[in-house]
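Chapter review: from sequence to fold.
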Amino acid sequence: MNWISNYVRPTINSLFSRREVPENLWSKCPECGTMLFHREVADNLNVCTSCDHHMALGARDRLAALFDHSVFTEIPIPEPIADPLNFRDQKRYPDRMKAAQKTTSEKEAMLVGEGKIGDAPVVVAVQDFSFMGGSMGMYVGNAFIAAAKRAINRKSPLIVFAAAGGARMQEGILSLMQMPRTTVAVEMLKEAGLPYIVVLTHPTTGGVTASYAMLGDVQISEPNALICFAGPRVIQQTLGENLPEGFQRAEYLLDHGMLDRVTHRKQMREELITITRMLMGQSAAIKGSLPAPDEKPVEPAKEEPAKKAKAGKNK
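The token string follows.
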């Protein structure tokens, strides 16, 4: 009797009461360890509701959160040579690319879109750190130049969200050549008298920091983002000394004059609307009068058939 009550009955009950819970419904905050419900995290733009830690946000999600009505048009990017050096480490370069494309559902590490924020046209380029660490290769260079040219043709500001581990080693010197190429593109924007705004997200390092990421007319960062050329561990090992607390983090760089603002992700859209309108000489936006990203456009009301017939009779 004990065997039946202690083993058989609990086993049967567990089989009938078991519910399959998808693993992707919950995520763990890497900063405070709080378990977060996926919808709650998405509604909060991937910011922890417990400790306010800014987690990674995909390029497409970031564009949708920025543009009016979440509507934007993706700008086509010229295709570079797929594997110029026939590079291979533990994997072949094309195999790494296919794996990153499968994981992120994106073609490359930078996505460029155009649309309106605050009812004003802008071009926005976003780096996706989940795609091979957001590394800068020839495609990223082409994407940045395409974004700059589009902004010049439309006479609109260019906003860049930077997130990268640096240059892409699989492309060698061709990757490093994107540093002067993107710098020339920034100079083209300045000659055209158009604003170039950079938003630095965690992390922004290496050749990206040494080129277009630090050349903005306005430099904004998300809270606690790591922004550097060489990382703090490399510097500490080289110098053999302890570094100041918060070294190379956004707040530290703001205190030392490297940044203009540190802005929470949920206030970033309003901040960019204010800055772009000011730099373009437009009137200040009235709070509450501009369309929200997830707000659907209001269709104009259709006239009733009787009114149309009456209007035609009067004519």
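Two observations follow directly from the output. Confidence is low (pLDDT under 50) at residues 303-315. The two ends are 96 Å apart (CA to CA).
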